[in-house]
Amino acid sequence: MYKSPRSVIIGGKGITKQIEIGGSAPVSIQTMWKEGITDLYKNQDALSSLVHRIDVLQSLGCDILRFAVPDTDSAKSLCAIAEKTTMPLVADIHFDYRLALECLKGNVAAIRINPGNIGSRDRVEKVVSGCKEKGVAIRIGVNSGSLPKDLAEKVEKGELSRAVALAETAAREVAVFDELNFDQVVVSMKASSVKETIEANEEFASKYDIPLHIGVTEAGPLIVGVVKSTLAFSELLKNNIGSTIRVSLSSTPENEVITGKQILKECGKRPGGVELVSCPRCGRVGFDVHGFVDRWQNELLSMNKDITVAVMGCIVNGPGEGKHADIGIAGAGDKAIIFKHGKIIRTIDAKDADNAFREELKSL
């Protein structure tokens, strides 16, 4: 049996909205910013551009956004970003505990640390004290590269599986926070192996009621990473293990969010929203399916509508196979057709497809 996770609140200070992790809350979606933000607080144009992109991520379904904070300037930039968005932002801290304290001067929603590389116990205590004062949660991050020496040696000797070692490492870190009477903690144990990720999280969830952030770390490029994440998440989520997820891809944050949202939808954890159906294209193609989907994907998936949209290359896969769609578009020779529930409602020149589609979409 696995423990039901307790509730942890992320955000809530200043203009940041609250996100509940664990408890009865739905599974939340996270991603991580891919570029450095060192000098961003000095550049208002760059800051505004970044905040706009955060708005896009939020509209796609992202609940929490994490930033690497390797230096003081990055901490200042993160605080500046946090003042411009309602998205709960997480500061990812390694080695220097003072960076966590710098981030706590702003409206940062959570701190992610690996206590094993922060250093002495008193440094962890200072971070916990600061988080208590600000009402900020902490995510404990453990991965296969951060195992304590004794556990790493047992793994190398074959005396302990890496998955069990990950769970034991997390348990040791949690014990420190328990001693400090701090329970607003989320734990993540990540490996690049699907099997080890599943086993580590199952091991921990069988003993603790702490919410788990799940993900396959360094999962790889888009296709490989999607496959690994889907396999790991579907296995864990069916046992209600995982209160928040991140799909780690060598791709854009937008693709991470879209993938995470779709996995949750297929696992029955996030119902509703736009269902986008598109054909793979073939030699019968009469319409640029790929180009149309690329142009429309983010806008469609950001809509607050429970509809199915079909984008088909030709009349064969148009109103026939797409007849269940609320709205669809397909090629028909040198023309394009727009259909609703299998019935053709407009035939237009391909160059007018986007404008005509938008008009019909608004009418739904």
Structural account:
The protein is an alpha/beta fold and 364 residues long. It is 41% helix and 20% strand. It is built from 13 helices and 15 strands. It has helices spanning 44-60, 72-82, 97-103, 115-118, 121-134, 149-157, 162-179, 194-205, 222-237, 253-266, 289-301, 316-320, 353-362, and strands spanning 8-10, 19-21, 28-32, 64-68, 89-93, 110-113, 137-143, 185-190, 213-214, 244-246, 275-278, 308-312, 327-332, 335-340, 343-349. An eight-stranded parallel beta sheet has the order 8-7-6-5-4-3-10-9. It has a five-stranded mixed beta sheet with strand order 11-12-13-14-15. A hairpin with a 2-residue loop joins strand 13 (327-332) and strand 14. The protein is globular. It starts with 7 loop residues before the first strand and ends with a helix.
The largest pleated sheet is described as: 8 strands, parallel
Identify the strand order in the major beta sheet: 8-7-6-5-4-3-10-9
- Mean pLDDT rating: 92
Tell me the β content: 15-25%
Query: Terminal Cα separation, in Å?
Result: 45 Å
Task: Please tally the helical runs, counting DSSP H or I stretches of 4 or more residues.
Answer: 13
Q: Which blocks of ≥5 consecutive residues have pLDDT under 50?
A: none
